[in-house]
Structure formats: C-alpha cells, structure tokens
Amino acid sequence: MSLSPLALRAEIAALLPRLRRFARSVTRHREDADDLVQIAVERALKHLDHWQDGTRLDSWLFRIMKNAWIDEVRARGRRDEVLAPEEAGEHVGFSETGSRDIRLSIEKAMGRLPEDQRMAVSLVLVEGLPYKEAAEVLDIPMGTLTSRLARGRDALQAMLGDGDLTP
After folding, report:
1. Is the Cβ–Cβ distance between 38 and 81 less than 8 Å?
2. Three-state SS for 110?
3. Cβ-contact 83, 69 below 8 angstroms
4. The domain containing residue 32 runs over which residues?
5. Where is the RNA polymerase sigma factor 70 region 4 type domain positioned along the sequence (predicted)?
6. Which of 31, 36, 123, 126 is geometrically suited to a Cys-Cys bond with 23, CB 3.0 to 4.6 A?
7. Are residues 23 and 51 in the same domain?
8. Is 141 left (phi over 0), alpha (psi -120 to 50) or beta?
C-alpha cells in the first residue's frame, strides 16, 4: 500500500526529533544542525516521488541529510569557513547535575571522533538503524561500517573509561 503525499509529510514530521538528533551528532553545533534538518526536509519534500514505497523513510531521510552535510562541508571549504565549536550550556531539560555531566562527557567524546566514525556510531547506536540500513545511508560496504563502529566504540570507551573528559 502506497502512502499519500500527505501521509508521507506526517511521517516526516514525526521523524523530526530523530533527524535533529542525528544532525547534532554530525554537525556538533546546534544552529548547523537546525539548518541541516531544514535542508534535508526541504529536499525530501521536494523529491517525495523519489522515495520508494516499502523502504524505510528514516533511512532515506538520513541519507539525504548525510549528502546535504557533505555538500555543506565542501561549500564551507571553498569559502574557507571554519565550523564553530559547540557552545557550552545549551543542554535544556537536565535537572540533575550528574546526568548532565555524563551527557556532556559523552557529547564531548562523540565530538572528538572522526566524522566517519561519529556518523556510524550515531546511526547505529543512537538512532538504532540496522547495520545494513546504516551502511546504505552512508553509502559504504557493511564491512567498512562495522570497522568504523568498532573503532568508534573503542575510542569512546577509551575516552570515557579513562575519565580524560570533563564537561
């Protein structure tokens, strides 16, 4: 059964929190993440006819977002712009200092990962995509994805286990 364009728009709207979370992981900057989500959703809405019924809508949107981010990084490189560092104190909704500190440490550790590992870890461990879907989103072989995940997990464990990160 094919979804109507209106139903697809509603499904995309329901995915916005996940898209924003992935964008924050990729960009490491709140405003860049918001812009990236907007670009990805605009592209998705413009090209709804390209989505194939029976495939995962979230994977399709994550792929659009990944490609949009690649485009943005290339454009910034041409303009010689530098990504701004993530601002401190922007995490709303954490009332406990301990959980906030843990979250900040994890975000800092994620930010120190190379981009390829950060994207793999974010898609599989944070967004819960199956390996096959994540590999398709990133347009890499499954073996490459598993290697990036293993290296990313090891690096995160080393950074967080050694306690060398302080928020």
Report:
1. no
2. helix
3. no
4. 1-83
5. 104-156
6. 36
7. yes
8. beta
- Final residue belonging to a domain, choices 49, 83, 117: 83
The CATH number of whichever domain residue 45 belongs to comes to 1.10.1740.10
Q: Closest Cα to residue 136, out of 125, 147, 120, 148?
A: 120
- The per-residue pLDDT for range 57-93, each reduced to its tens digit, is 999 999 999 999 998 888 877 665 444 444 544 544 5
How crowded is residue 58: how many other Cβ atoms within 10 Å of its Cβ? 21
With beta carbons less than 8 A apart as the criterion, state whether 165 and 108 touch.
Answer: yes
Q: In the structure, what pLDDT confidence band is assigned to residue 55 with cuts at 50, 70 and 90?
A: confident
Q: What is the pLDDT of residue 108?
A: 86
Q: What is the pTM of this model?
A: 0.58
As a whole number of Å, the end-to-end CA separation of the chain is 48
Question: Which tokens go with 147?
Answer: 């290697």
Alpha carbons 15 and 80: distance in angstroms, whole number: 33
